[in-house]
Amino acid sequence: MQVSLPALKAFESAARLGSFKAAAAELAISPTAVSHHINNLEQRLNVSLFRRETRKVTLTVPGKELAVATSQGFQTINAAVESISRQDKQINVATTSSFAALVLLPALQRFYDQYPHSKVNITSGEEINTDHFNLPVRLGAVAEQADSDVLIREQFNLFGNARLTTQPDQTAPITVYSTRWKNSALPEVPWQAWLNHNDLSHKQFEVRYFDQELFGIQQALLENACVFCSTTLTRDYVKAGLLTESGYPAIDSALCYYIDNKDSLITRHNVMFIEWLEELLEQH
């Protein structure tokens, strides 16, 4: 048997509050509308749910049985709605260690300043397992991604202190840290293309490798050496004066940061975070 959901809601409220008038106030409808809903429900069930008295209404035995069921049912619904609402506010970002440490975490307070009621949980690692509730910010090949999924195409350049990045023709080779990806399916860092583009030779550099750009940047800072890496990841270090970008032009790579199936991640807070992230990366 099908019954009206508004009628059940009117009944539950009146049963809980012991008053049609109070139920009307709670539901923002008229007492007449409450009475109409309950009369229709009684006719549908062919029972009396309330005993109407001059100043109050009391539940009949069938009314008490239905009141227990509707109370439990609406509590379950309300709990589910609240749970889903909390999930919407929780933004679960899964990304690489380098992107998390060098781009997202330094800028996260700015997101909270703009959206104080959101909560961002960042999981980092080179293997990203995704589900419907994750925002997977991945590093991958530009050619393999839909244009709508790409956040930013990566450019690479040489970074270090001002003396090292402007004098690569000195007698001793300059130590440069670069990256060989743990994931062999990723396009290579464009070191050779950068050398060719700027008429430079391997002999002018001693190149050492890590499997993450984050490590190369940290080691270059510790040793006062150079690092060949993404311009996206070094922006804050350059702004802080810790690294200087070489006077040579940066070079496009075959790499990009992207969100797989970005348009399908449609919760309200996910959309807010994606829009904020796109604005952040446009500043790079």
From TrEMBL:
Q: Which residues belong to any copy of the HTH lysR-type domain?
A: 3-60
* Pfam families associated with the record: HTH_1
InterPro entries attached here?
Answer: LysR-type_TF_proteobact-type, LysR_HTH_N, WH-like_DNA-bd_sf, WH_DNA-bd_sf
Instruction: Kindly give the Gene3D superfamilies that the UniProt entry links to this protein.
Output: Periplasmic binding protein-like II, Winged helix-like DNA-binding domain superfamily/Winged helix DNA-binding domain
Q: What family does this chain come from, according to its entry?
A: Belongs to the LysR transcriptional regulatory family.
| The protein's name | LysR family transcriptional regulator
